[in-house]
Each structure stands twice: as C-alpha cells, then as structure tokens.
Amino acid sequence: MGEPLVFTFNVDGGDFTSAGQASVAVKKNLSQIGFPPEVIRRVSIAMYEGEINMVIHADGGVATVKVDENCIEIVLADKGPGIADVEKAMQEGFSTAPDEVRGLGFGAGMGLPNMKRYTDEMSIDSTVGVGTTITMKVNY
Amino acid sequence: MTVKSLAEKLNLETVCCPCPEKEVSGVYIGDLLSWVMGRAKAGDAWLTIMSNVNIVAVAALADTAAVILTEGVTVDENITATALAKGVNIFTSRNPAYETAVDISKLI
C-alpha cells in the first residue's frame, strides 16, 4: 500500500438525527476496500460512539480515519469542555449526559468503554476548557 | 434462517426489508443504544421498544440482521426511508420482547 487513505468528516453539534453519518460512510468505504466485516464493525462502532459523544458534549468536532498498512486509526478532535476525570469517564455506567439525551437511548455511560472494547489501542488527550482528542487504532 | 422467513413464520409486520436474505443467528434485547452496540452480535435480531431514528445507525453499524420493534411500537416514515437507504430491516411485533425472543429461539 502506498499513501495511506484518509477520510475526514465534520460532525455537527446537537444534531442527533444525522449523528452516525460519518460512521456509516466509513463503514461503506471500508467495505468497498474489502476489509473483513468484524474489522469494519469494530471501527464503525468505536467511531459512532465518539461521534455521539462529540454531539452530546462538545457541539461537534472533526473525525479523521486513516487506513494504514497494518491498522486503521480513528482520531476524534473537539473543542468541547474537556473531560475532568478521564479514569472516571472510562468506567462503565458513568455518564454526564443530560436527561433529554438519555431519553433517546444514549447516555448510558457505555460510550468510552465501548470505544476501548472495540479497539486495540485508545488514548485520550483532554484539557478542561480546551477540548478533547481521542485516538484509537484497530489492527488488521 | 433468513430474516424474510423468520418474519413470515412469526407474522411480523414489515416496516421495511431491504435485505431479506440476511441470516438471523441470535437475539439481543435492549433499549440503551450503547449497550446494544457493546453487546449485540452481528446477525442478531435486535428486539427493542426504542423507535427514534438513531436505531437505524446502531443497527447498521452493529450489523444486526433486523430490528424488531416489540409491543406494537411503530416508527415514523422518515425512519423507514433512512433504514431503506442504509439496508436496515425493521419489523414490528405485537408481542412483548420475551415472547418474541422465545419464538425466535424455537426457529433458529
């Protein structure tokens, strides 16, 4: 493989009806390239959880997916409020999502844990008041 | 068993079925979307009462074979259009989730 393929998406804030468009587009692209279904599933679920988090907490952001020789890298960058306690945020069931979001079926405190569950590497770089960048890698 | 045969045998009402030949290999019951994405397996029939548009993205990304809305829950037309575009099968069952799951387990 020569130059890595890169897909970039702007994720709109506060728009739950279109949330997931970037993940669905990535799923389609990876499928056309010929990745195994389970790899595509892991990448697209991890990315969707990140997209939803950016919609709920950060008024949107930018999602970048890079297809490298041995792994698919997903970078989700936002200029939201940041995560005060990353360790706590990674616990299953911990959520700071507002009630109206929970009414839609989100905010169960499973987003970040799912992102970790479905990826081989995950790092969170967050500064309160500045924003959050999450980098995930799925090896193949 | 294919989604199409399952829907026929259970007398499910079809909301949309763009991929009738998908194989159903299990069942997952849940309404919290991240739980579904974390725990449902590819090929599961996903039984839920959640009917907003986000179920389409979740079903598409988690590779579930079909969404079955239980207890007679219905969806808006705009959801049907999105589901058709994303290849997501949606059905409605008048029965509760437990009974629907029991029925499916006898068939697969």
Please characterize this protein's 3D structure.
The complex is a heterodimer of chains A (about 140) and B (about 110). Chain A has one domain (about 5-140): Histidine kinase-like ATPase, C-terminal domain (Heat Shock Protein 90). Helix content of chain A is about 35%, strand content about 30%. Chain A has helices at about 20-35, 35-55, 85-90, 100, 110-120; strands at about 5-10, 60-65, 70-80, 120-125, 130-140. In chain A, strands 1-2-3-5-4 form a five-stranded antiparallel beta sheet, with helices on one face. The model of chain A has no long low-confidence stretch (mean pLDDT about 95). Chain B has one domain (about 5-105): Udp-n-acetylmuramoylalanyl-d-glutamate--2,6- Diaminopimelate Ligase, Chain: A, domain 1. Helix content of chain B is about 40%, strand content about 20%. Chain B contains five helices and five strands; from the N terminus they run H-E-E-H-E-H-E-H-E-H. Chain B has helices at about 5-10, 35-40, 55-60, 75-85, 95-105, and strands spanning about 15, 25-30, 45-50, 65-70, 90. Chain B is globular, with a radius of gyration of 12 Å. At the A-B interface, helix 1, helix 2 and helix 5 of A face helix 2 and helix 3 of B.
